[in-house]
Amino acid sequence: MKRVNIKYLVCSLILILSLTLGAGCHLLPDIDLLPPPNPPSSHTATPIDPDWTLPPIESDALVLPNITDVVAKVKPSVVAINTIIYDIFNRPEEHAGSGWIIDEDGIIITNNHVVEGAESVTVTLANGETFPAEAVCVDSLTDLAVVKINAQNLPPANIGDSCELRVGDWVVAIGNSLGLGISATKGIVSCLGVSLPVSSGQTLYDLIQTDAAINPGNSGGPLVNMRGEVVGITSVKIAMVGVEGMGWAISGKVAMPIIEELVQNGYVIRPWLGVAVSTVNQYLKRKYDLAIDEGAFLREVIADSPADEAGLEEGDAIVSLQDREITTAGELVQALHSYQIGQRIKITYWRGSTKNTTYAILIESPPP
Q1: How far is CA 63 from CA 123, 161, 163, 331, 365, in A?
Q2: Which of 57, 120, 243, 294 can bridge 327 by disulfide, Cβ–Cβ 3.0-4.6 Å?
């Protein structure tokens, strides 16, 4: 049986254990606001189709009479994704995930963690045909990926409006559960707008929580409404004794703009400051003699970046942008992405016991 990537299935258990065991040594996720830029000739971000645009949201689709009809409508658009990843001993491991067709010319949507680090990626359609990936474009920050295969006349799934979801609405998760083939589970929307740390340095925002059963291999598959429209992309589940019915999907509202950029550009262009940050904690406060208890601590300032040019240094702690309070590394990420490339922003920070103000002009994020 194929081994299934379970990194995202145990993320919440790790968080709970770290909070329990780390009392008195409270460590929170580190966040890299994009790595140092590579030389222009070295990046591998290749656009799939610079002129591609998202299919329109279906606004007049009828509510289907039952879940059987929902599955029958969507299942032909769902694919199994298999990858080979080499472990630290250079031994090949097979992993399974899911995806769904967004364009009839072979554009597939999945999660970044499904294809992350893979030496090979293959896509198996509902009819059993298998294709190697021609291109893979990823955005690790939002855990999204686009896979391109050489196939035409595929059945794309319809896209729905995730903003119309209400707590209690029926939804169906369809995917390659346990790597055993495409199957479906049903549930309701349990909560909306959830933010969830999933690993060191990564928080997913605006998630849809559902009690639809989600198992290893479901990652990257669609979460659909009763019109048979994709409203989310299955991404995370808690896997621990005593916890049932808690899974999350990336909302379409968050995912669709990212998907469009990945297809058009090969990577996501964002405003870039050029720092790697952690949330201020008691250890950092004592080590760097900081006079604050909250903020975004600068673990690294990249040379010649906007942060470097603004005079920021490793060990500083940012507490506000444009007078918007910053108490965590995650808040800094969200704030930066709300501004524009070329915008001049006011930064308030502490260096030891001294409060300072500087200004930086945000630039375009470098390609991966």
Answers
A1: 30, 13, 16, 38, 41
A2: 294
CA distance 187 to 170: 6
Cα 84 to Cα 94: distance, rounded to the nearest angstrom: 5
Closest CA to 161 of 21, 59, 290, 24: 59
pLDDT per position as a tens digit, 322-333: 989 999 887 888
Assessment of whether the complete model's pTM goes beyond 0.85: no
- CA gyration radius, the chain: 21
Site of tokens 């006079």:
291
How far, in Å, CA of 334 to CA of 220, rounded?
23
Q: How far apart (Å, rounded) are the C-alpha atoms in residues 128 and 346?
A: 55
- Find, among 156, 157, 160, 154, the residue nearest to 61 by Cα: 160
Among the residues of 228-352, which ranges form H helices?
Answer: 252-265, 282-287, 306-309, 329-337
d(CA 324, CA 59): 36
pLDDT in tens, 267-317: 888 999 999 888 899 999 999 999 999 999 998 999 999 999 999 999 999
C-alpha closest to that of 354 among 302, 317, 329: 317
Per-residue pLDDT band at 338 (split at 50, 70, 90): confident
For residue 175, what pLDDT band results from cuts at 50, 70 and 90? Answer: very high
Asked if residues 235 and 11 have their Cβ atoms less than 8 Å apart, the reply is no
Nearest to 237 by CA among 217, 214, 221, 220: 214
Placement of tokens 């945000």 in the chain: 362
Active-site residue numbers?
113, 143, 219
